[in-house]
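Project standup — Tuesday

K.O.: blocked on the structure for the chain from last sprint. Re-posting the sequence here as requested.
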Amino acid sequence: MIYQALKKYSNWKVILSLLILTLLFMSVVFPHYEAKINKAANEKVRILDARFSYNFEQVNSLFSKMGSKGRDAYHFIAANVDMVYPIVYGLFFILSIASFLKKIFPERPKIMLVALIPLIAVLFDYLENFNTLKMLGNFPNITPGEVANGALFTQLKWEFIAISIFLILILAAAAGIRKLLLKANSK
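H.V.: unblocked you, prediction finished:
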């Protein structure tokens, strides 16, 4: 069943729609809410989701700078906006990978399971979000353990996003090479 769904929805119309949604989140939605947080902090701050790593002191400093209005805005982002975004970018990555896999390996449907690797990034993104919500709720009484968990989830999210992007690029190149070879062999 999953093979059929991946095969069916890994087409350019769906992938392009998801790419546009992903870019809208990155260029409009997140900057809008980050501006609210920056205004509340009276300076430009980098939220935890946008960092590769962070520690206990950095989280305390960030949450203090944000003030209650900034923390409320961050809570809204983590509880609402960033609960939708992983689904959007996750589907974009999954269907992009599936699209290339079906072109490269048309006779091997089980290889389509490789397309599910971005689900790991999505999982860590959700774990990061729930942990961030917990820290925001517990502030100023956050624990080093909460911060360590959040930093680990954030780092693993970014690593699996990078793996997904790298996989898309490698598969795009392989699909292009395959197409050229098939065209050359048909002459």
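K.O.: great, moving the ticket to review. The chain has a mean pLDDT of 95. Helices lie at 2-9, 12-41, 56-104, 118-138, 144-185.
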